[in-house]
Known about the structure:
- By secondary structure, this protein is α+β, with helices and mostly antiparallel strands.
- The protein is built from 3 helices and 7 strands, in the order βααββββββα.
- The protein has a 5-stranded antiparallel β-sheet, covered by helices on one side. A two-stranded antiparallel sheet has the order 2-7.
- A hairpin with a 5-residue loop joins strand 5 and strand 6 (105-114).
Amino acid sequence: MSNLLQTTIKIRVRFSEVDSINMVWHGNYVQYLEDAREAFGHQYGMEYMHIFNSGYLAPVADIHLQYKSTASIDDELVVVITYRPTRGAKLVFDYEIRKTSDNTLVMVAETTQLFVTRNGEFEVSEPPFLTEWKKKCNV
């Protein structure tokens, strides 16, 4: 059975992240997801520089966002990122964003990253470094 690889971060909404109606501007949530992916990479040894040094890039190829509630200035948000094991040359993550004050669900999301060589060619099979990482993490 696979391990559940998950990381949790906290974010306090800054003034610069809200729009004229005092809600977090929708595009800022994508940055929160990126922050969670970076924290996940540091925790589990899948940092972007590790991918790069292995000869690949990992651009986000697909993203799904479902807004459930709003957040505003000074709200503290908890972002939970969970790795979803898949076959092939990709990384898939699920996310949940909640307010810490009352546990209100603000957003659920999913991202898919594909592997591209530094020459710009999509990798269709699982890169060796990803296979090693999956074995090490038991996923």
